[in-house]
Amino acid sequence: MKRLTYSLLLASALANPGIAQDRPNIILFLVDDMGVMDTSVPFLTDAEGKVQTHPLNEWYRTPNMEKLAAQGIRFSTFYAQSVSSPSRTSIMTGQNAARHRTTNWINSESNNRTTFGPHDWNWEGLNSQIPVYPKLLQKAGYRTIHVGKAHFGCIGSEGEDPRNVGFDVNIGGNSIGQPGSYYGEWGYGFIKGNKSRAVPGLEKYHGSDIFLTDALTLEAEAEMEKALQEGKPFYLNMSHYAVHQPFEADKRYLAHYQNSGKGGQAEAFATLVEGMDKSLGDLMQKLEELGVAENTLILFLGDNGGDAPLGGPADYGSSAPLKGKKGSEYEGGVRVPFIAAWAKPDANNKLQKKYPIAQNAVQLQQGTVMDLYPTILSVAGVNTPKKYALDGANLKKLLQGKKDKKHRDDFLMHFPHGEHRANYFTTYRKGDWKLIYYYNPETTGEPSWKLYNLKEDPYEASDVSETYPEKVASMIKMMKERLEEENALYPVDKANNICKPHL
Description:
Layout: H1 2-15, E1 25-31, H2 55-59, H3 63-71, E2 73-75, E3 78-79, H4 84-93, H5 97-100, H6 133-139, E4 143-148, E5 169-171, H7 212-230, E6 234-240, H8 264-290, E7 296-302, E8 338-342, H9 350-354, E9 361-363, E10 367-368, H10 372-380, H11 396-399, E11 410-415, E12 425-430, E13 433-438, E14 448-453, H12 469-485
Parallel strand pairs: 1-6, 1-7, 2-9, 3-10, 4-5, 4-6
Antiparallel strand pairs: 2-8, 7-8, 11-12, 12-13, 13-14
Helix pairs in contact: 7-8
């Protein structure tokens, strides 16, 4: 009887596209390690604000991202945090990493503080007491679905299981930061590959030829159908393990990239990107079939700068023309793609009238991952908690293609850890100026810094700190004020002295 009722409901949905909803469905489509250049969609703009196509945009094939961008608005400058866990925690909390203190990627089994990192950094990540927005959506009647990578906390912590932090459903998410394998034949790591990083909960696909990205997409589609069955709006955290290493080729797309001269790993990475794009297209098609595309908002982004195997960490290979990659202090390490669009634009749809999104537009004003918390709650008609320290702001006006003079024009990225691509640093952007401040706890010596004018030098080719010492001083002062306001932790030297920023 239950199965019959569901079938009838689904049939009704399919027969009546655009079925009425009081609240929109929301999909956060999050791609692991996808930088702003890992796509055929150009995000970077010239001095006049016009998008520019670069060689990497011609290398990758992402037609569904192109479609989504044409239907909505993309941001030329959208900032994440240094690496995975800080960004994911910032998305869920609306807080900067300096404030929530998950300032490094979380190792599942042990505290990866690094030698001079802060002793009490938050390596347990999220917990059930934090008012993360999925929990607020859940209380407001949304069916909250997590599919894919979580990486919210270590083994044994509450954040290990997304169901402890506001999700009704968890498929494939736990403490791991990368998949044991992308191959169903290998059981996503259980049969062959990195078994300690095997993706959980997908046993029915083991031994099949279904690629991990596709398996997660199929599960997400089924969960959207269940939400429709229950008559609930849904929030889907579509959090792909792709395009994180291991760089195992999705063989369906390998012919598109072979003999490129870029190397086998780069070609495999490109297939992961294309497979991720197929997932986006599949979900958009499913929304059409279910009759709810007009009622569904898609927010697409990466969780940190790119990690394409196309060069060293601080050169112009993997993120060209930007400098740097995942974990670095440069723009290529922290800029990510961001697109917001209704899955099927309809000027007459009441939900879209309430929350309009510009089409085929480019927003030049910067946004950050912290902005997603208030934006998603605003779309859902849910208030942000009173007296909650929120570092992000609602993107509603910016998503209309307008300028929002009240939206903050500064961005802080705090990484008080070492033994990565860049060690013990804070970057601070204010307007066109960007400061990179390096702590030196290894030697207890004096700090150092670099200063860039991103309007004149968007690719960070020329450090102008010696030319503008007064600007350096003012930027350090503003950076210190933000760090203190957010109660940041700092590196410590060999004698456990705290290394606070100073001139």
